[in-house]
Write a structure and sequence with these properties.
By secondary structure, the protein is of the alpha+beta class. It folds into 3 domains: about 80 residues, no CATH class; about 200 residues, FAD/NAD(P)-binding domain (3-Layer(bba) Sandwich); about 90 residues, D-Amino Acid Oxidase, Chain A, domain 2 (2-Layer Sandwich), CATH 3.30.9. The protein is built from 14 helices and 20 strands. Helix 2 packs parallel to helix 4, helix 2 runs parallel beside helix 10 and helix 12 packs antiparallel against helix 14. The protein is globular and about 65 Å long. The two termini are about 30 Å apart.
């Protein structure tokens, strides 16, 4: 079971738990024998009326990777696009790791990538360190970015494509009273000057994309439901140059109930400093205690460092109950697209924003027709088919290996296996199915069982102490 879980892109298929509202035409996905089955309902949007005198208008709330990618795609597709972001210099407590495929898929310039990580250390509760990355090819790496740099770049590119970027705070959404009536987006506009007053503004649009993060106001406005979330805490620490050399192309991940009962601690390299952080779902009030423990575990390597920035932010643990209502869709963290176990969210945010925008462009014939809920459901169907299995598999991994320190020791032990490293990195870097070797899969299954048996025996011995 766990050998399959470690290869999270092996063709597993399962629809999301979201409630789908029946429409006229029904498309049924294939039914796996071993998984829960749910019907998707899709209606072609070509019956929607043509728009005269203008093109389709869409507002995007939130200017992170999801919002920036959506805005660029819409603008290039002929849609009148407005992106509203409250803080244009915002920096999130995000590890900043992006897979190699994102660099190519989103045509990212190499100068926004601070570091190319080719080595990783997974460090167990007992401080056993396992080197990960031995299977990487010479051209392969994990990119490390600063969110304030990446987000600004994607917004600037959207602006160059024709989107209007507004520095403002979204406050309220008035819903239409008729089928094709506009949504009214209310926001407070900023002029960027310190001490300036906020101007109350409003715009009318045909559709709204909520890309405004885990505390999404757009999600609340459509009653999208709540989800469990983690709190991430991160300190950016400027360390001496000789110590920074150690982290030149190296990232560290610490596991143990001292650094987090259900996540991990990290030290990731940035341009001229390191990001040291941790996260938790179950013990949020203790986050500073876990952060201190993470710093203590890495203390010799960051000795002499100076904290230059402190950041905290919620991170969703699973998709919201509803990600689409009428002509309002959620993407990125607002939708809950952060993977358990790894906490990865940047790529999935940008990808979901682009996929949502593509569905709008296609369904409305480049903005010439009115958008309908059915057009946006195409985005959800494609997303769930492509990525839902990944979220379920990583959920299983977290429950199996993060439940106790002995289980974490077993997890780190497994990470030493080169086959595990190859399958994991290939899946992470390229976000696609990686065929495995049946014999190696069998060996991995045996080793996994052995690691878990040893972990269970250790747990019982520790319980006697």
């Amino acid at each position: 079971m766990v050998s399959i879980a470690l290869k999270s892109f092996t063709g597993l298929r399962q629809s999301s738990p979201e409630n789908h509202h029946p429409t006229t035409t029904t498309t049924v996905l294939s039914k796996p024998n071993h998984l829960h089955y749910r019907r998707h309902t899709i209606t072609a949007g070509k019956s929607s009326p043509k728009i005269t005198g203008r093109n389709l208008r869409v507002a995007i709330i939130g200017g992170g990777p999801a919002g920036g990618a959506a805005a660029e795609t819409l603008a290039k597709g002929g849609i009148e696009t407005v992106l509203i972001e409250r803080k244009l210099d915002n920096a999130k407590p995000c590890g900043g790791a992006i897979p190699l495929c994102m660099v190519g898929e989103f045509d990212l310039p190499l100068d926004i990538i601070d570091r190319r990580v080719t080595k990783m250390k997974m460090i167990s509760p007992s401080n056993v360190a396992v080197d990960i990355g031995r299977t990487l090819k010479p051209h392969e790496y994990i990119g490390m970015v600063r969110r304030e740099v990446l987000d600004a770049y994607l917004r600037d590119r959207a602006s160059a494509a024709g989107a209007t970027v507004i520095n403002g705070l979204f406050t309220k959404l008035d819903k239409p009273t008729e089928k094709y009536a506009p949504y009214v987006v209310h926001y407070n506009a900023y002029d960027g000057k310190a001490g300036s007053t906020r101007r109350k503004e409003r715009i009318e649009v045909d559709a709204v994309i909520g890309a405004d993060g885990a505390n999404s106001r757009v999600a609340k406005s459509i009653d999208a439901g709540d989800y469990e979330y983690a709190i991430a805490f991160q300190e950016r620490i400027k360390i001496p140059d000789e110590k920074m050399q150690y982290y030149e192309n190296l990232a560290e991940m610490y596991v143990g109930d001292d650094v987090s009962p259900d996540f991990y601690g990290w030290v990731f390299p940035k341009c001229d400093h390191v990001a040291v952080g941790t996260g938790t779902v179950t013990h949020k009030p203790d986050i500073k205690k876990f952060q201190l423990a993470t710093r203590l575990r890495a203390r010799d390597k960051i000795l002499g460092g100076k904290v230059i920035r402190v950041e905290a932010h919620p991170i969703p643990e699973h998709p919201r109950p509803r990600r689409l209502v009428n002509r309002v869709a959620l993407v990125g963290d607002a939708a809950g697209y952060v993977t358990k176990c790894s906490g990865e969210g940047i790529y999935f945010a940008a990808k979901s924003g682009r996929m949502c925008a593509e569905a709008i462009v296609e369904g409305t014939e480049n903005g010439l027709r009115m958008v309908e809920e059915a057009d946006l459901r195409v985005y959800l169907e494609r997303w769930d088919k492509k990525y839902w299995p990944t979220y379920k598999v990583l959920d299983i991994l977290q429950k199996v290996f993060y439940r106790s320190n002995p289980a974490r020791e077993a997890f780190v032990e497994m990470c030493a296996d080169e086959y595990v490293q190859k399958m994991t990195f290939d899946s992470y870097l390229y976000k696609k199915v990686v065929p495995g070797n049946p014999l190696d899969d069998l060996k991995l299954a045996v080793n996994t069982i052995g690691s878990l048996v040893r972990a269970n025996a250790l747990r019982k011995e520790m319980a006697k102490i």
